[in-house]
Amino acid sequence: MVARGTLLNNEPLAKYTSWRVGGPAQHLYIPENKADLIEFIASLPAGEPLYWMGLGSNLLVRDGGIRGTVINTRGRLKEMYLADSERVYVEAGVPCAHVARFCADLGLTGAEFLAGIPGTMGGALKMNAGAFGGETWSIVEKVEMINPRGEVIQRDHHEFEVAYRSVKGLADEWFLSAQLKLSKGNSEASQQHIKALLEKRNASQPTNKPTCGSVFKNPPGDYAARLIEACGLKGFAIGGAVVSEKHANFIENRGNASSEDIEALIEHIQTQVQTQFGISLHTEVCRVGEKA
Questions:
Q1: At 138, phi and psi to the nearest 5?
Q2: I want to staple 292 with a disulfide (CB 3.0 to 4.6 A). Which of 9, 63, 124, 261 is the partner?
Q3: Confidence class of residue 2 from pLDDT cuts 50, 70 and 90?
Q4: Collapsed DSSP state (helix, strand, coil) of residue 83
Q5: Is the pLDDT reported for residue 1 higher than 70?
Q6: If you average pLDDT over every residue of the chain, what do you get?
Q7: Predicted confidence (pLDDT) per residue in 112-156, tens digit
Q8: CA–CA gap between residue 260 and residue 63 (Å, rounded)
Q9: Does the pTM exceed 0.90?
Q10: How far is Cα 244 from Cα 106, in angstroms, rounded to an integer?
Q11: Which family, according to the similarity comment (predicted)?
């Protein structure tokens, strides 16, 4: 069934996630490249549950693990090239930060904000990830999708309903690649912009701790971090999971957290913000798998 990639069974996922938590995947497939992945998906039995993982950020895998097959694109699906003078082709496994630097080096502007997104393009496309006021789909012209039968489909931007941290219209399809439309700019200026953005990020976020990135979406007209801090929750912990002292919209794994600890802390934060402010916080992070 497997062409050239690696298939692992009952593989613990904690080492693949940025939170460093998560139970085992029934099957974990690491493809050799895009062609190999297409062949593998086409060979799966009908109805096989399929999950995708890049850098493992924005993802909480529950302690009971995942039934079905997890596709891990970390270090795979990494092709990226200049398609024409203002367009860049990038596969789903390329880290967003690499895309930002690649475009800047080419003298193309518009992708600098991607340097602040701690995931791959596949994840950024799925949730319309953003940073520093920029959003992924603002630079997406078209995408390449794959369905459960291994069929590859080309889709234009207008075929999706895109909003803040939300992309609708995916159905049973997953991202293989995207074509980005950028503008000609100044390479040195873009590189300096990226440097400034990263300095700002490092100063305000716990980038050296095991986190998933931002946990909650910002509610309209406000900031999740402000609300959480106003509830007095900075430093509040459940088990090994703690609300970051540096940025309240981050939950850190102090080294011994379980997925259950993190999920309980997420729910506690939501309850406190709802009780004190009457505002429902919705998660950015995707929760998958079964409880232990």
A1: -70, -20
A2: 63
A3: very low
A4: strand
A5: no
A6: 95
A7: 999 999 999 999 999 999 998 999 999 999 999 999 999 999 999
A8: 7
A9: yes
A10: 37
A11: Belongs to the MurB family.
* Identified catalytic residue from 11, 135, 144, 165: 165
CB 239 within 8 A of CB 256: yes
CB burial of 156-177 (b: ≥16 within 10 Å; e: otherwise) equals: ebeebebeebebeeeeebbbbb
CA distance linking residue 230 with residue 142, whole number of Å: 41
Structure tokens at 265: 């802390």
**Is 214 among the catalytic positions?**
yes
The tokens 């701690």 sit on which residue?
118
Give the DSSP H or E segment for 276: helix 259-277
| Active-site choice (11, 252, 263, 284) | 284
Residue 63: CB atoms within 10 A of its CB come to: 19
One-letter-per-residue 3-state SS of 140-199: EEEEEEECCCCCEEEEEHHHCEEECCEEECCCCCEEEEEEEECEECCHHHHHHHHHHHHH
DSSP structure class, residue 112: G
Structure tokens at 174: 């997953």
Gap between the Cα atoms of 20 and 62, Å rounded: 11
Over residues 59-66, the mean pLDDT reads 98
Q: For the residues 36-59, what does the mean pLDDT come to?
A: 95
Catalytic annotation present for 284: yes
Among candidate residues 18, 214, 244, 258, the one labeled active-site is: 214
Please tell me the predicted confidence (pLDDT) of residue 170.
85
pLDDT in tens, 205-226: 999 999 999 999 999 999 999 9
Q: Is 260 noted as a catalytic residue in this protein?
A: no
Pairing of strands 108-109, 183-184: antiparallel
